[in-house]
Amino acid sequence: RAAAVEAAAQRVVGAEQIQYLDVQRHSMQDFFQVERERRVVMIRGVPATWKPFDWSFKSMCEKFPTHRFKVGKDDRGYALKLSMTEFMAYCQRQKDDSPLYIFDSNMGGGDVGAVLMEHYAPPSFFPDDLMAFAPERPPYKWFLCGPKRSGTCCHIDPLYTSAWNTLLVGRKKWAIIPPDVPRNVAKGRTVMKKGEDDEAVHFFVDLVPRMRELGVPVVELIQEPGETIFVPGGWWHCVLNITDTVAVTQNYCGRNNFAEVWRSARVERPCWSAKWLEGMRQQCPEWADAAVRINQGDGHDMNQLLALHDKRRQERRERRLANARGKARRKARRNGASSVFDEAAWEKTYRANAKYTSDSTVSTTSSDSSSSSSDSDSSSLSTSDSSSSSSPPASTSGASPAGNQ
User: Fold this and answer.
1) Among 323, 32, 57, which residue's Cα sits nearest to residue 162?
2) pLDDT tens figures, 321-346
3) Do the beta carbons of residue 257 and residue 233 sit within 8 Å?
4) Helix/strand/coil (H, E, C) string of 219-250?
5) What CA–CA distance (Å, rounded) separates 141 from 105?
6) What is the pLDDT of residues 237-287, one digit of tens each?
7) CA gap 277, 266 in Å, rounded
8) Could you tell me which of 281, 246, 250 has the C-alpha nearest to residue 362?
9) Chain centroid to CA 176
10) Using N-to-C axis directions, what is the helix angle for 258-268 and 302-334, rounded to 10°?
11) Residue among 216, 194, 311 nearest 13 (CA)
């Protein structure tokens, strides 16, 4: 099995399709052209523009020996954390097919996070950060530290955001699959045998060769230290760490993918999108206007979707209330107190403890018209859906606040 893993890790297929850019020799407009065409590219020279810093496993362990980083979640969804010393000891002895992997959206948090963020910045090709206009935002940046054979399952990034990933230590193997490949095909489910899973090492060793036999256009390439890969929104990708690796990555919404991200976010996270829209109105009205034009062009009514979302959320809460009430009654009956069960008092306490009341939402004004929606994983979120009347402004003055650089 070890030989098969090594062979899969070194296999390169279709990498000649991937264009290489250099931050020193190519302009921002060169990259914007690639970004508008939704092409995966590899960028060289990014770490040379950052402050000098030793990102090696040994150095990280020496700098932050007791600091605890997130390596996963337990069965209840709570974060699992290990100190860097504990993680290094694990890496040195582990022989797992799918090892633990530091994948920390807080960049370690606290003083450690501040140190790490001081020594990297979004590459110059990525000047925009339009989600920064929201009063709060989903996780969007990660510190990655993974041993050999760790990795991620095949996926597309959330809310149709694009991403850049800068590799600082080690080598990574990437599988890249176009957005128009159906989900179950891209994730290898159509070729998966009983007892198999889609963990990264199994995906490359077992599933990719079968997928290629069926004509699935999987590009396999290797990312070397110092290289930054750009993955446009909607592209499927799976990553395997060939060696011990350290990387930083960010997802973003910018001038060239705003329409796709907005269309996905308004459906997948309607309440948050309403707050984002209000933030844009207050800080950068031209982008709020762009979002409204997209909604009008698509015939999308955010208020109607918000109302439906609130209705479904209320129905879920009512079902939880009914289930909890039934359990309380049965418990009282078992304790011989069913005749004195005070349902009104119980419900008042339950609602208070469960924070039962509805969250308020932000008005989206009456300028949005009738409703339609699409799944964010679908190809209907491609650039071809945009028209000149619903395109965002050409300029993003103030779209990338200094605090997020």
Assistant:
1) 32
2) 889 888 888 888 888 766 678 888 88
3) yes
4) EEEEECCCEEEEECCCCEEEEEECCCEEEEEE
5) 6
6) 999 999 999 999 999 999 999 999 999 999 999 889 999 999 999 999 999
7) 10
8) 281
9) 16
10) 30
11) 216
